[in-house]
Amino acid sequence: MVSAVNEYILSQFPGDAVAYFSADSIEMDPGKEGVVDADYSTEFLNNLKIGNFPDHQLELKVGCPVILLRNMDQTVGLCNGTRMVVKTLGKWFIEVEILTGTNVGDRVFLPRLTLSTHYKSLNFTLIRRQYPVALCFAMTINKSQGRTLANVGLCLQRQVFSHGQLYVALSRVTTRQGLKILSANENGEEGTSMVNIVFPEIFD
Fold first, then answer.
1. Beta bridge partners of 135
2. Using an 8 Å Cβ cutoff, are 125 and 119 in contact?
3. Cα(55)–Cα(46) distance, rounded to whole angstroms?
4. Do 12 and 63 contact (CB within 8 A), yes or no?
5. Which residue among 35, 42, 135, 168 has the highest number of C-beta atoms inside a 10 angstrom radius?
6. Helix, strand or coil for residue 26?
7. 58 with 19: CB under 8 angstroms?
8. Confidence class of residue 68 from pLDDT cuts 50, 70 and 90?
9. What angle do CA 180, 183, 189 make, to 5 degrees?
10. Region of 171 on the Ramachandran plot (φ > 0 left; ψ -120 to 50 alpha; else beta)
11. TM spans, by residue (predicted)?
């Protein structure tokens, strides 16, 4: 849902989009090295989408907000979850301006990084070389934890599914007037109530 919102807003955002494509490869688990590359095509690897991991195709426009997906350099404010705005889209770099933390207003250059994530069910580690950012017009509730915002639009076309999620979402905003909620029921129809998940065993 977050990806769909981000992609739609980007399509309405002024300017020309620049697409960056990752280089993907795999590293088989010990004992599984006999699997040949043909068993996992390039197209299959490119289509893998993982939470908190950059996509194969990253489309950006100058002026759009992004969020950093990895810790890079805490001394200059480049930490996982840092929000930034794109200033320059180069061939070999992305220039961004930091929007959060103690380094607000600083401009930095982001390089491509080689990132990896393990797929236990497929017995391999995906290795992806890509810029470690994602569009951030919208973000997940979990990713918003710890932030304080003046205005929040909460999209609950799918209701929360974990203990405390609704509280986290509603408590990000500083005033009631700054909160707008789109809620839907189990049939996807607009509703006037929200689900609040509570696990009583947590309090035992």
1. 66
2. yes
3. 8
4. no
5. 135
6. strand
7. yes
8. very high
9. 140
10. alpha
11. none
